[in-house]
Design a protein that fits this description.
Blueprint (H helix, E strand, L loop, with lengths): L4 E8 L11 H11 L1 E9 L3 H9 L5 E10 L2 E6 L11 H10 L3 E4 L12 H8 L5 E6 L6 H13 L3 E4 L11 E6 L3 H10 L2 E4 L6 H21 L4
Parallel strand pairs: 1-2, 2-3, 5-6, 6-7
Antiparallel strand pairs: 1-8, 3-4, 4-5, 8-9
């Protein structure tokens, strides 16, 4: 591990999420403009966005291949993935598949009930020993209570905490990040994260309309292609 510091936005989305239209090249440009040196691309139900961005990203941008996985108990995040983890499985099976490929298990926006699917305290306690980190600040979470609960849980179980913008449009990237030491690999990442400083601010709730529009647009495109129509 070096002494170089970087800003790490550890939860963003790309055009590979059903509710996001942000191309990979726009992610790179936004990070360069803001001095973001690391992103975790955690698309819904697929690791493809992170895998592809990792191939084209400049040396100045570290890409963590991640995925938001919808389990039967709510959403979890796999990080440092090599391939997609299927959605719709049990919480325990999803964690097993993440670990089987050498990944880390993170919990995004825990305790959120709207508009996302936090997994809640009961489920968290059941798998606490299998978790590697927990998201303590999500710029899209509208209320402060979930962050407070996440911090309390992290302290109780001695887990490092992460932060992310949960960006679904490029302008959101960098709204939340961890200022941390540069790292190489998942072990150094966890060590650097444990000493990192969470920074950022809440995003306007209005951005959720952009996500809804992207989802509707994606559905319209799919239906039109099925019917053989132009969009």
């Amino acid at each position: 591990m070096t002494d170089k510091r970087l800003k790490a936005d550890l939860h963003i989305h790309s055009q590979y999420s059903m509710d996001c239209q942000t191309p990979l090249d726009k992610i790179i440009k936004r990070c360069q403009a803001l001095g973001i040196g690391c992103v975790a691309v955690a698309d819904h139900g697929t690791a493809e966005g992170g895998l592809k961005l990792a191939k084209i990203a400049p040396a100045s941008l570290t890409v963590i291949v991640a995925e938001e996985v919808l389990t039967t108990r709510g959403e979890i995040m796999g990080m440092f993935l090599k391939e997609t983890v299927p959605s719709g499985l049990s919480l325990q099976e999803s964690i097993r598949l993440i670990k089987a490929q050498g990944g880390l298990v993170n919990i995004p926006h825990p305790f959120d009930t709207f508009p996302r699917s936090g997994i809640g305290l009961e489920a968290l306690e059941e798998v606490a020993r299998e978790l590697d980190l927990i998201e303590a600040f999500n710029a899209r979470s509208p209320y402060p209570q979930p962050s407070t609960k996440a911090l309390d849980f992290a302290l109780k179980h001695k887990l490092p905490t992460s932060a992310g913008s949960d960006a679904h449009i490029a302008s959101e990237i960098g709204n939340a990040f961890v200022e941390m030491t540069a790292f190489s690999g998942k072990e150094e990442f966890l060590a650097a994260l444990a000493k990192g400083i969470i920074r950022g601010h809440k995003t306007s709730p209005m951005v959720h309309f952009a996500s809804m529009w992207a989802k509707l647009r994606r559905g319209k495109t799919k239906n039109s292609l099925i019917r053989g129509q132009d969009v």
